[in-house]
Structure prediction request, 389 residues.
Amino acid sequence: MNFSHRMDFIAPSATLEVSAKAAELRSQGHDIISLSLGEPDFPVPEHVVNAVVEAAQTGRAPYTPVPGLPAVKDAVTLYFKRVYNVALPRECVIISNGGKQVLFNLLMALLNPGDEVLFPRPYWLSYPDMVHLAGGTPVPVRPETPNSKITVSDLERAYTPKSKILILNSPGNPTGTCYSQEELEILAKWAMERNIFVISDEMYDQLCYLPSGLSSLSRLLPQFSEQLFIVNGLAKSFAMPGWRVGYGIGAPELIAKMSTIQGQSTSNICSLAQAAALAALTGPYDTVEQMRNVYMQRRDLAMNYISLWPNVSCPMPDGAFYIFLNISKLFSEQIPNDIAMCTHLMTKAGVALVPGTPFGDSRCLRLSYSTDEETLNLALEKLSPYLGG
Ligand SMILES: Cc1ncc(COP(=O)(O)O)c(C=O)c1O
Prediction:
């Protein structure tokens, strides 16, 4: 078939491929523990479930405004007031099908062919493909320091007159790297001084374990609304990945353009999902804090094991639920790369991890600790003979 050129640049998600391989092995009778998925293992808070049931029981399902119901947009602004003490008008908000669609709409609205988009490497695997789809050129920036955080001097090296956007992602997928408020602001201000638009992907903002607390560039929004955009959603912080609620906040003029794109593609997100978002964002946030504490304990559990593996290293993950393991010292003739190591671990240890290649680092594997402690312990025990040598 004669496919469009844009198909040359994009690939199916590697995380989904690993889950499919794990499912295939399971169907053949193998016992596979998956540490590959990027989604919370916690239940949706009960009051949120109840709100969806109530909304369904009205028996009405009209279209809503494309960028979301006013009450849901207000609930997003309430979140920023409660968590970051930032007051935002409703016109700054768009509700989309997950953080993914927010990013997609945004890049479609901003990029022209040849525009360069900077982001730290390793990166969330959708950034390069989304940038390509929107006609831009991805420019991954590898940090010079070994702690996986980029600095202004890394950005200086990557900068060209075509640099149009900088994407920051903290806490980060796949490394769990978390930038402090000060570090984020230094990077954002460097970009804005050069007329580079800043996208802050804060999908995991609630899952930050730094003692200094949560960080968010939303704190700069009132001052720099023309040059800054925040992407977030309810997938991670509120354990609702499948209900596809993402939101973006930025300049009303930009929100209107994104809304036009959304209006010609998917229109409003499911109205029941909007009922869920309303209940989650306006209700108590205690489950969010409980989840954060549990994730932190799991991170410590996993890091205790990993510190005993002399040939494996990783930056200290201060957020999200990922650890990005550098396993290159274990490569051999039989296992020459990350993909071979993944297959080896899945078939021999019975544990599924994700190869680092799609995240921009073929020396690594991504481990997700979004699973209960007992399973995590067992998986790490099973991995030890293979990664601990
Ligand atoms: C860094 C990052 N940004 C954005 C997203 C998109 O989230 P959503 O599931 O809301 O589309 C993800 C999802 O895994 C992510 O890891």
Summary: The first helix runs from residue 14 to 27. Residues 38, 98-100, 124, 169, 173, 201, 203, 233, 235, 241, 246 surround pyridoxal-5'-phosphate (CB under 6 Å).
